Amino acid sequence: MHFGATTTQRVEGAHSAMKHAIKTSGNLTKAFNSLDRWLRLHHEENSLQYENESISIDPLLAQEDKDRLEPLLGKVSQFALNKIKNELLSTTAYKACFFSDEQQKTALLNKLDDILAVPEVKLSDIKVPEKIVGKGRPSGTKRLPTALEHQSSKILLNYRIPANDIDQIYNPLNDGNCGFCALAFAIRGNEENWDLIKLAMNNQLSKRMEVYKDWLGYNTDSLKWILEFRASPCQPSQWFVSPDCAQLAASTFAVPIAIFDEKNEQSMLFFPLETPPVHRKTSIILHFINGNHIVYVGMKSYAKINWPAVNVQHIPLCRKYGIEDHWSKLFA
């Protein structure tokens, strides 16, 4: 009960976000794992936001103002410039020893106003859209098939996946980033966070470069190039690849990832390399379609899946680093 009281404390917003991350009132272990995953990705979001603010310049600024801000690139954000302006407004000539007179302070404020001001746009310069898009689904488009309809759709799944136990099939945008989008939907419930998925995987790769380069034999230069590319669409050379991206994702998010394809030619199961399965997590299934697209397949909780073979490098790697292989026992 709140008795009509309203609070704007930041802790209330954080509490609401945590409750949304946990989603359901399950056991303590499930709640802990959900909260741990949310905190890790929230940290990556803050890191990405900091990077964007420190390197971005308002596109509405004039070119001469952009040139003037170039020395501050990567050092001062838009928020900082506004903060400087507010501090100057509240500072008198007597308090600010670095001002020789009030005129110098006024001149600096005027320069900040010029930098931060949004250019005036005349209504006559605004182009009216030639076509107004109405409400509802655009004509000629179809919704994603449900689990019961997937057999009649064009998506052909691997025979190891029981059709009656499928909960959903999520088909992300076909722009070349589909593998990372499908992974983002499986982890965060929203494919638009695919860039954060890449950021987290790139950080994991940098921390464990020796494992992926020297022992697993991955082309880490190519892998970093894939993970650092954040545009859409992308070229085939920048797609989600297996086993490189699949193994790295399993270790980054501490969850088993199963890769399937229609002909079972590259189907493989990947376990986290460093995180032991204190309690078994729900595995993520990514399915290749025609070799050039990836969808996410969500299964019901009671589904019994005929898992593909485990990555052949998993057991040798565990032996090399003295890691007890608990994951293989769970999926035996």
From TrEMBL:
The name this protein goes by in its record: 3914_t:CDS:1
Originating organism: Racocetra fulgida
